[in-house]
Amino acid sequence: MAALNDILSSGEPVPRHAPWPRAVVSRGAWQQAAGRLQAGEWSLLALWGDAWGDASGERGFAHMAVLEAATAQCAVLSVACDGNRFPSVGRVHAPAIRLERAMRDLLGLEPEGLEDARPWLDHGRWGSAHPLGAAQGSSARQYAFLPAEGHSLHQIPVGPVHAGIIEPGHFRFTANGETVVRLEERLGYVHKGTESLMAGASLEHGAVLAGRVSGDSTVAFSLAFSRAAEAALSVEPPPRAIWLRALLAELERLANHFGDIGAVCNDAAFSIMHAQCGWLREQVLRVAESGFGHRLMMDRVVPGGTLCDLSPGAAKAVLGLVAKLRTRFPDLVELYENTSSLKDRTVGTGVLSPALAQRFAAGGYVGRASGRTFDARRTPGYAPYDSLSFEVPVVQAGDVNARVWIRIGEVGQSLAIVESIVAGLPAGAVRVEMPASHAEGDREGVALVEGFRGDVLAWVRIGADGRIQRCHLRDPSWFQWPLLEAAIEGNIVADFPLCNKSFNCSYSGHDL
Amino acid sequence: MRKLLFKSLVLGPLTEPAPAASEEALAELAARVNEVSRRRLGRSLSIREVDAGSCNGCELEIHALNNILYDLERFGLRFVASPRHADVLLVTGPVTANMREALERTYRATPDPKWVVAVGDCARDGGVFSGSYACVGGVSAVLPVDLHIPGCPPSPTALLRGLIALLESTA
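YS: structure for the whole thing
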């Protein structure tokens, strides 16, 4: 049993990659790593391709970011794709399948042994295939959904344009009467080519793009991107900026959790919760607007620090907000808990087993409602959370109700964190300049940030000219969308909106 | 629940006064909306929202229009589930190549007379995503656009001002 350190040391370490180690390993070691993922000893944090070649420029690389459970160590392993091929991880570890299909679409890297030959993000409409690799040819438009055979089965195609005000995606239900036998998702409709726009961009522009990967997680993404860029260039933002970023991140978590709690109840036709939670969400957004100049706090976190500060007036407004939320929210929690017609819809609906949540390394409320204790603020952890005291609520039930309760628990924790941040905010500057260029050649950085939905990973390589060469941003939804397919099985079609909302996966963050 | 309902009764309505119609929007619309369609619709418009590639920031703010503070329906504006019931398509995002056909089909499914409102900076010209292999550009690259509501994302107040202008020019 090779541990992460053994596999790392068997390869060639890559200098100037921070803060985790990165090594280029052999195909054999790569397959061993896939085995560790399969055995559940490691969690897959990300898997992406890179057209960056050796001196001849004729081969790409596949990278995987992993977390070893026993040592809480994170690392990036890379394998050279000779002939544009690499050993598939998805062959033995299902969470990697869609990531590898996306790598094939974007870069033309072929995962050897991957059974599913269908494209994922590429719908045959980009004009050329493999836009991030050596572009050539165009791809097919037809797409075969997985078969479901049996008596009395019928299919319900839904989307990409849905009935509500939500993002586009296609759901193919196969049902037996009311009961869902299979749900197959088809995504990629909002693929915007963000990673191609990143290549060659300045860090400043990169932060703008990162802030628009998924609008509801704009703080989390710009924070992940900024921390990765800072790690790459060994820049330490001022302490005040680090604390302010956490304040923005917690306000974002609060706003989204209020929105989600209300929306889940609304999908169970209990609209008073929706109305009340909508009001709470609006209170958070208005404090964000008055204190930081943007309701969603877009473009406030940048490499080097933040573009906003907390004025004494804004600090008062934030504390006033906490007090207001603390007065109003408990009544709603009580209402949720005591309304049996509502609980009848949420309890026991859309159950996700702890084993699956663990296997897919599901982040956020999806994982924590199914017994997975992971929270990026704790492991690998980052400032200022190491000096703040908070709890990570975890339950085992894995149903819609559990995912609502995790959010309710996290609202309480975030309110306490917001208070401690305002009380303990260090004085000083909120931003340092990022170096415009550096002498040593390419530098790489990686960061993991806990967004409201789960852990967001950012990886960036910055050239000597200070421009981005390759940036990969992995939304938590990559590992949550497949679990929704599992959670809905055996439920009735009418409960799908409820299950879907309790997961609230991002389409834009996933499609990128 | 009774306790909460009583409290709400005592508090009075939380809905805020209506903002004025946006001057810029009125000017843009004056050129496009004709007398005939005004008479046919009356003071009510049904809106179908289509995300054609947005980052979901615009969707969050469009959602907020339905909350008790902005309360869109008091103006006779409401969101409907199908383009076949709609007078207005509210389109967000740089139109992605993968969404183009779905957007065109949604437009074709909407009965005449119809209006297209492009929401957000991306919907105007592709915004930060313009130039990408995966994006077609702004909404006007695919559909005739009657009104743009700028912003990244536009605030609910900005959205309301634009939509009220649309209502005033069509009513």
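YS: worth flagging: The mean pLDDT of chain B is 89.
IM: good catch. Also Chain B touches chain A through 51 residues (CB under 8 Å).
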